[in-house]
Amino acid sequence: MGLYGRGLPARKMGCHKQMKRREFWGRFRRNRLAMTGLILVAGLFAVALLAPWAAPYDPNFIDLKEVLMAPSPAHLLGTDVLGRDVLSRIIFGSRVSLLVGFVAVGIATLIGVLVGSLSGYYGGIVDQVLMRLVDLMLCFPTIFLILAVIALLGPSIWNIMVIIGLTNWMGVARLVRAEILSLKEREFVVAARSLGASDARLIMRHLLPNALTPVMVSATLGVAGAILTESALSFLGLGVQPPTPSWGNILTMGQANIEIAWWLSFFPGLAILVTVMSYNLLGEGIREAIDPRLKE
Q1: pTM value?
Q2: Three-class SS of 213-230
């Protein structure tokens, strides 16, 4: 009959999970700021996916007759020093920012979940070694470590994604370790262990699914941080390289022409602000919906 007898407790467990999902969605939906963040994030996704159709011009089309044109009906956000349409470049730049954000956070989450799971489950010497590794990584200033690696490997979008991911997994590892430590002595884990479940099965089937809630919040907030880091590196000329449009390298051009072309700094800066704010609102909304006591 298995662990759940004739299946009735399993059905009850499924109903309980469904009720929890409904409660979560109800709390989340009542949070206006969280819903605002969700709508903005969905809009950013739509813009990035539909960039070839949403952009009015080719983002790399050079028109020297329309250099540094102010915002107008023909070019809603103006043009840059090569006559390229700023709106089109910002729209295509959203693809770069979202790609970097999600891939970097995906790498960081995978490493953090692996390290945190092993550390929390096995404890002892394994925990000591892995947590000292986390402490060692936290000792290095992240931005200087990223700059050093980029100086060795060279700037490219793939290097940026991997480096950001490899330098931001420590917080996830600590979160997962704490959750595993609190869960591994629970009755359902002890029962599964007594039935002969392997360590891998205990971690993957019983512990991790119950430990990933704070990781989801951390990952949402981490996307905003990764986008900020990519924009800063591109602004310094160490990130995405022209002619590929990125919000950071558009800002670099704006800095050189800020006295005569304010739109080159204002609009990409606004795009970064709105994107980071959206993910922060979404992450905080998820956190409060998961544990409403955090509002108190």
Answers
A1: 0.84
A2: HHHHHHHHHHHHHHHHHH
